[in-house]
Design a protein that fits this description.
By secondary structure, this protein is mainly beta. The strands form 3 sheets. Strands 6-10-9-7-8 form a 5-stranded antiparallel sheet, with no helix packed on it. The chain has a 3-stranded antiparallel sheet with strand order 3-2-4, with no helix packed on it. The radius of gyration is 14 Å and the shape is globular. A hairpin with a 2-residue loop joins strand 7 and strand 8. The chain contains no helices and 10 strands.
């Protein structure tokens, strides 16, 4: 990352400043819903709170990870495709959204942000990849 980054259960987006940066240089916590993104590795939870500027950190390319939902999410059932909805948080995907994985469980409380186990799909997918 080009600047210090708080390590939390959220998704990050990638820099589009050059062809070598996309997918390798983190731009920060993903802000706009539907961005191509990857979740931060939740291994950091309880171990580190931040990543210094211009340092290395891990994201989950494929596999299980806990990601925070949006405060008013509609993720009331598990095993549905999910997308990053804004500010690095997730919600259930709808047709033509950038799907980053599958929710392995429902959100415990859809009125507040909740950590949900997600199986992240491999690779960086573009719009229109929902199932």
């Amino acid at each position: 990352s080009g600047s210090a980054l708080t390590l939390e259960r959220k998704c990050v987006s990638f820099s589009t400043g050059g062809v070598t940066e996309f997918g390798s240089k983190i731009d920060g916590v993903a802000g706009t819903g539907g961005e191509v993104c990857k979740p931060m590795d939740d291994y950091y939870r309880g171990r580190r709170t931040s990543c210094p500027a211009n340092d290395l950190m891990y994201v989950v390319d494929e596999g299980r990870v806990d990601i925070m939902t949006t405060a008013d999410c509609t993720l009331e059932v598990g095993f549905v495709p999910i997308q990053m909805i804004g500010f690095g948080t997730i919600d259930q995907a709808i047709d033509k959204d950038v799907v980053i994985g599958t929710a392995m469980e429902a959100a415990a409380d859809t009125a507040v942000t909740t950590a949900v186990c997600v199986f992240v799909d491999a690779g960086l997918k573009q719009i229109g990849t929902s199932v």
